[in-house]
Amino acid sequence: MTVSFEKKIKPYPHWEYSNPEFDSSIRIVPERGGLITEWRSEGKELLYFDLERFLDKDKSVRGGIPILFPICGDLSEGYSNGGKKYFLKQHGFARDLPWSINLLKDKLGIRLKLTDTKDSRSYFPFFFTLWMDVCLKEKSLQISIKIHNQSQESMPFSFGLHPYFQVSNTQKIKIDGLPEKCIDQTNMKVTNVSDQIRILDKGVDFLSYPSSSVKMFDFLSRNVIELIHQEPMDTTVIWTDPPRQMVCLEPWTSPRNSLITGDRKLEIKPEEYIDLSTTFQHNSF
User: Domain segments of the chain: what residues?
Assistant: First the structure.
């Protein structure tokens, strides 16, 4: 098997990892939050990516697979630790910081790495190292995360991914595997999943707790994207942003505000670590 891993300049500076055997590749920009900007499977580009917006560094990214840490969603009222109040912006800071990148020893993927900084400790007062291994398999992207708490106190956090999948038409989408009820994150009220799916083209932002996997069918391209959950990263958020022809199918560990509410909040004890994983599978029908 001959894989390649090289730095490229066009159409923007990035690293490209490819596996010709599967006609698959990913592009990554470690300096921009470890962002995976493209994923090709069997020659098909699956991710939505707004290049023009990406090139404007004053704007948040719309596309690729942003990394959410140490919170998912917002934390508008801040959180307390050691008698002091801290504030984090939407989805935390990992998506804004530079990561390092290396080829895995078995050459089956790449490893991204993020460590705390003096600046990050001013709003998240913990020492940590976060590794994210991205393995390109046949028709799938397997992502494994290890978070090591190097502080002398327990570290609360949430972790998530925010992948943007391009679709032919948001009105021609079917999503299977979700429970009947979900939480509309625009008003935090319980509502029907079926009602949300009907208005994907109008813009939705809802969270649910599936049991195993969620499948999204694109009836025009005939692509199927399956999000295969692994506990505790088994909360699903669906988000659309019309008129963009994309659907975000996001695995989170915890809902927004979990550091305050305690709902599915995760903590890592001092000098310990936690492993997380998720898989995106691509098929056709």
Answer: 41-284
